[in-house]
Structures are given as C-alpha cells and as structure tokens.
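About this split. The held-out portion is used to measure sequence recovery: a designer receives only the structure tokens and must propose an amino acid at every position. Recovery is the fraction of positions where the proposal matches the reference. Here is one held-out target exactly as it appears in the evaluation file.
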C-alpha cells in the first residue's frame, strides 16, 4: 500500500515490486506468471490494476535497478514480449528475458 507497483501498459498491466538495494542480500529477479489476474495498487495514481505478470526485482546496486527498470519498461511495452513471458515454456521465457533484459 505504501509503494504500489502496478503499471498500466497498452491493453494490459504488470506489477514490478522491488526493494531498496540496502535491504537486498544478493541480487535476484523473479518472474511470476499467474493463472488468474490479481489486483494490485497502481503506481502512478489511485486505483487498482489486474495483473497476470509480476517481475520482482531484488537489486544490490541502485544503478543496476535503474538500468533494469528502464530496460523492462522498454521491452514490456511490446505486447509480443509480454505475451511470450506469459505463455512460453519456462526455460524459453527465461532465455528470452535474459537475452533482452539482462544482457
């Protein structure tokens, strides 16, 4: 409730929860694909968004967090990328995410 994470994109929504780097012991990214949409608070204004994709960032370096968020927003605005993260087999979705976001 204090730091809402829901982001509305063109025709779909995602959640990108993350913590301050000082609270992270080691970096990690969790991509959570939900079978049914769940409600999350909007990051940009009051209200609720329904999301099926959650990208949880645990980053130890604030510069990395900014870079990841910028890359995420850039790629998640592409609906094909979003749909592939939701529907591809796990290993293929992971490989796609790493190739587009991490490298």
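Reference sequence for scoring:
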């Amino acid at each position: 409730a204090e730091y809402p994470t829901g982001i509305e994109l063109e025709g779909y929504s995602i959640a990108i929860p993350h913590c301050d780097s000082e609270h992270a012991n080691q970096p990690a990214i969790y991509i959570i694909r939900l079978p049914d949409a769940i409600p999350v608070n909007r990051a940009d204004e009051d209200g609720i968004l329904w999301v099926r994709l959650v990208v949880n960032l645990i980053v130890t370096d604030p510069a990395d967090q900014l870079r990841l968020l910028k890359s995420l927003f850039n790629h998640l605005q592409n609906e094909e990328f979003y749909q592939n993260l939701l529907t591809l087999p796990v290993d293929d979705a992971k490989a796609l995410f790493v190739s587009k976001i991490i490298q």
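Annotator remark: Helices lie at 62-76, 79-87, 90-102.
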